[in-house]
Structures are given as structure tokens and as C-alpha cells.
Amino acid sequence: MDPKSTVPGEATAAIEHRSFARIGFLGNPSDVYFGRTISLTIGNFWASVKLEPSQHLLIKPHPFHDLVQFSSLDHLVGRLENEGYYGGVRLLMAICKVFRNYCKDNAILLHQRNFSLSYDTNIPRQTGLSGSSAIVSAALNCLLDFYNVRHFIKVQVRPNLVLGAEKELGIVAGLQDRVAQVYGGLVHMDFSKEHMDQLGHGIYTPMDITLLPPLHLIYAENPSDSGKVHSMVRQRWLDGDEFIISSMKEVGNLAEEGRTALLNKDHSKLVELMNRNFDIRRRMFGDECLGAMNIEMVEVARRVGAASKFTGSGGAVVVFCPDGPSQVKLLEEECRKLGFKLQPVKIVPSCLNDSDMQTLSKP
């Protein structure tokens, strides 16, 4: 393989990228099981990463998310119980490692200048909105620009790098979130085993964001831990459990039906598919695993006649109110009573630039 060199020239300007929160619209969690999904990025929440040229390579702790100074022992314990042990520094370090190793393995020569990385995020923790992968995805974009290698690393491969960084840290997840954040906008994803085995990634098809109806987001101030949801089902699937295997296939098929419904503007079909997606998930995982608060967020929407399902693995719910503003008003009142937050979804378009689009057309 011929080495590919980065273009010389001293980089002096800071580079900053945002990566947006993700909603799994249909088909999740079948992405981990050779299924299909439709996902979208939303402008309500995002993570940003800033890269600045510097003498030494420096990963800057966030003043809140990587807090190491406390007013008391009680403050420290309370903080750990609410926020956990991990901030974003480990995510930035992991993507630096995975990026460097990928470039080395693929004969992409990197210049030797150093940089500092810092991050910020307003994505609520443990809401199933892909907060961790947003930080990693934004950092990857900074590295691609700093080393001027965007044209060497195909867009289709980049979600694998993001997921690779998270796997370094023991985070169990699928490619769906990373694809959505790398591509931006509305994306249909096919993770069929044939594609994954032959290509090492799925087939990702961007869709027109205007095909989506108005959507809303429900989330809780103190959500559950989304990291515990996959465990038992994953093992049962690996063990050949026929119920889990057939159910995951059924969930993946919802994305195919959903793509047709979106293209036909068949909103009544979308209501049916969204509700069925959650119902199948509930049968597979069980109420104890999903959590009472997560289930109540789904149920509060259904009580006013809206369609609802998890955005990810719990902590937030995507809602479609087919009857329009009057139905949204009813939902607002019900959410207020229960202490849930309700926001209209702001859909963001694709974030790919011309250089990215050129890599999509490469064999």
C-alpha cells in the first residue's frame, strides 16, 4: 500500500465541530443484531469539540463534567451518585488512539504537530440521545481537518472509528448512533450480516428530512441508566433464542416499512410502526429492565392518542402527535403534571461537506 501523506503547512487556526444528539426513529435496537434502522440528528442538543494547535498534546478536562475539586466529601459522593465516575476526557483520548492506529494501519502518514482538545456538551446524561458518541464524533471531525485526511477516510468507515473508541472504554453499543452523527440528518441504515461481513459496515442511505412529520421529545430530569438495557437480550440472541431472533427481525423490518411510509407521507402508518417498535422491545426486555419511569414516558403520550417509543435504550421518548397542536397541548399538560420535559424536535440536515461526499462515491 502506498503511503498517503497529509498536506504540509503550519495549522494555526482553531478547529471546532459540533455533533448533534440522535433519535432512533424506527428499527432500534436491531442495529446490534444485523437489522435495519432509521435515525435522525436533532438540533435540540449537541456536543462540541475544539482543537487548537499547541506545543504539547493536551486533553483538557471539562470544568463540570470532569470535576476533580469538591467542597466536601458529601459533595464528591453526591456528584458520583448523580453523574457517575466518567467525564469526556477518556472519550477524547480513546478516539485519538483509534484514529492514529487506523491511519497507521492504512498507510496514512500524519504530520507531527501537536494540539489541545477541549469539549462541551448540553446533551442530558442517560437519556438515550447518544451523548458520549457525540463527543467522539465531533472530536473525529476535528482530527480529520487538523491532519487534512478527510479525503482518505471514507464516510462509511468513520462510524466504525467512533464505535471503536467507545469499545476501548468498554461501552457496549451498535453502529446506529455513530452513523446518524457522522452523516447528520435522516438516515436509513441496513446492517445485514452480508454487508457487515463483506464491507465491514452497513449500507447507509440519507433521506430528505422534510419527509418527517413534526416530532416531540419527552425526557426526564433524573433518567435511568441506559447502559444496562441490552445485556440479557444480547446473550439470549447469541444463544439462539428463537423468540429474540424473530423479534429482532420484526423490529428491523419496521425500518423498511417506515421508509415506505415516510416516502408516501403515510402518517397513520408511522403511528402504527412507532407504537409497534416499542411494544416489541417491551416484550423482549421486560418491564423491570426498561424501568417504570421510561415506560411512563411512553404511556403518557399514548394516553393522549400519540405514538411514542424510546429514542435509544431509555431515558427519552420520541413522540408523534398525528392530530396536531391540540394534541400537543394535551401532552404538554400531562407531562407537566408528571415532571417530564417536552420539546419540539429540531431536525438538523446532513453535516457532510463536498470532501465527504467525494469519499462516498469511491469504490
Produce the secondary structure layout.
Layout: E1 4-5, E2 15-26, E3 36-54, E4 58-59, H1 73-83, H2 89-105, E5 108-109, E6 114-121, H3 131-146, H4 158-168, H5 176-183, E7 186-190, H6 193-199, E8 203-207, E9 216-219, H7 231-238, H8 242-263, H9 267-285, H10 287-290, H11 292-303, E10 307-310, E11 316-320, H12 325-338, E12 341-344, H13 354-360
Brief sketch in words of this structure:
With about 375 residues, the protein is an alpha+beta fold. The chain has helices spanning about 75-85, 90-105, 130-145, 160-170, 175-185, 195-200, 230-240, 240-265, 265-285, 285-290, 290-305, 325-340, 355-360; strands spanning about 5, 15-25, 35-55, 60, 110, 115-120, 185-190, 205, 215-220, 305-310, 315-320, 340-345. Strand 10 (about 305-310) and strand 11 (about 315-320) form a beta hairpin.
Description:
The protein is an alpha+beta fold. It is built from 13 helices and twelve strands. The chain has helices at 73-83, 89-105, 131-146, 158-168, 176-183, 193-199, 231-238, 242-263, 267-285, 287-290, 292-303, 325-338, 354-360; strands at residues 4-5, 15-26, 36-54, 58-59, 108-109, 114-121, 186-190, 203-207, 216-219, 307-310, 316-320, 341-344. The strands form three sheets. Strands 2, 3, 4, 6, 7 and 8 form a six-stranded mixed sheet that branches. Strands 10-11-9-12 form a four-stranded antiparallel sheet. The longest helix is centred in the last third of the chain and has 22 residues, at 242-263. The chain is globular. The model is unreliable at 225-229 (pLDDT under 50).
